[in-house]
Amino acid sequence: MELLSIAAILLGFLALLLGAGVWIAVALMATGWAGMQFAAGGIPAGSVLATTVWGNSASWSLAALPLFIWMGEILFRTRLSEEMFRGFAPWLNWLPGRLMHVNVLACGVFGSVSGSSAATCATVAKIALPELKKRGYDEGLSLGSLAGAGTLGILIPPSITMVVYAVQANVSIIQVFLAGFLPGMMVMALYSGYIAIWSLANPRNTPPAEPPMSLRRRIAESLNLIPCLLLIIFVFLSLLMGWATATECAAWGVLGSLAIAWWQGALTWQSFWASVMGATRVNCMILLILAGASYMGTSMAYTGIPMALANWVNGLQLSPYALIAALTVMYVVLGTALDGISMIVLTTAIVIPMVKQAGFDLVWFGIFLVLVVEMAEVSPPVGFNLFVLQTMSGKDSNTVAKAALPFFFLLVLAVALITVFPDIVMVLPRIAFPG
């Protein structure tokens, strides 16, 4: 049987399991098990399952994930989250959509600290969803904006995905980091623009504007932002200046959150224990899904499906723009089965020569690849951020997928913009490295 036919069968099997309500992690593992039956050489599926789950779970870099989630739980269970919204409110009152833009801003800021799409999405959702619901904002738009903005964790530097690509493509990590800043700002602007347009088109679903405030009152209200902003700036500078690793920064973030909550008198034994248990539940859910995705990715690698798909695209002999369109479709399809790092590792050896031959800069292609991985994170119905939000909100998969669909198409627009106007990506690397 041809590999592409096998890929279609496995994708259909995964969709069937998810549609039947099977746990996401179990569905991924079952699909990986089924894929192993097509692998050549009689490789034992059970042994691969054991080694893959353990090997991908026992990761030092992954230790940052539960710590950042715990940091979000602490912020959620104290007054810090409410004060963040109170601080932003006076400045966003004039903008259509008002506090809905906090989702984009908070994900952009936190994404630059965490470098993880899952951690960004889970942490900001834990803080934002209850506040927005309490204030009467549309829940569908809240979920969609969080699904889209949560992906900023891998686009705004520093990003683990960018590092993996730079190593695989043998390009400068610093140049790839620099190249990600303007596209990150562009994606944030697209999200905020959509929120504003949606709010203007649906005024009944947007809470009324709060009474106007004087400049002095605005500044006074914004003082509530100082604890959160100082914490985030400290963590960000520690990472940017090389004072600490991502995991160490996450630990400092937890310690800072606890210190601020104690200083404000909001830290009690009950809130502390609730934050520990909440972080444990969310982290177990995410790690179990990651384990299932890792096993399925390993299974796909054994079958040779990613390489076959890349070779198939290469054999079409497409024009440069048609090649980019084909690669976009290919990576979105792969994203239904693989995480972003697995996609990069398994396909760059085939794809990089194709891209160089078509005349595209490899630094530019790195940002294109990150954007396409972002698309895979929110592609209905199997994007990883959708799984996270489904658990965080208690909504069914169809509701979350429908809410995320507009933001998926905004990422498609972002890919088109950087393809037509590559200077959006390349201007900062060229300024920093004129040679």
Q: Approximately how much beta-strand content do the residues carry?
A: under 5%
* Percent in helix: over 70%
Average pLDDT: 77
Largest sheet, described in full? none
Roughly how many Å apart are the termini? 50 Å
Structural class: mainly alpha
Count helical runs: 21
Q: Spans of 5+ residues with little confidence (pLDDT < 50)?
A: none
Radius of gyration: 22 Å
**Order of SSEs:** HHHHHHHHHHHHHHHHHHHHH
Give the overall shape: globular
Number of strands: 0
Would you give an account of this structure?
The protein is mostly helical and 435 residues long. It has 21 helices and no strands. The chain has helices at residues 3-19, 24-36, 45-57, 64-76, 80-92, 101-114, 117-134, 139-149, 160-169, 173-201, 215-222, 226-240, 246-263, 269-303, 305-314, 320-334, 340-358, 362-378, 384-393, 397-420, 423-432. α4 runs parallel beside α7 (117-134) and α9 (160-169) packs across α18 (362-378). The model has no long low-confidence stretch (mean pLDDT 77).
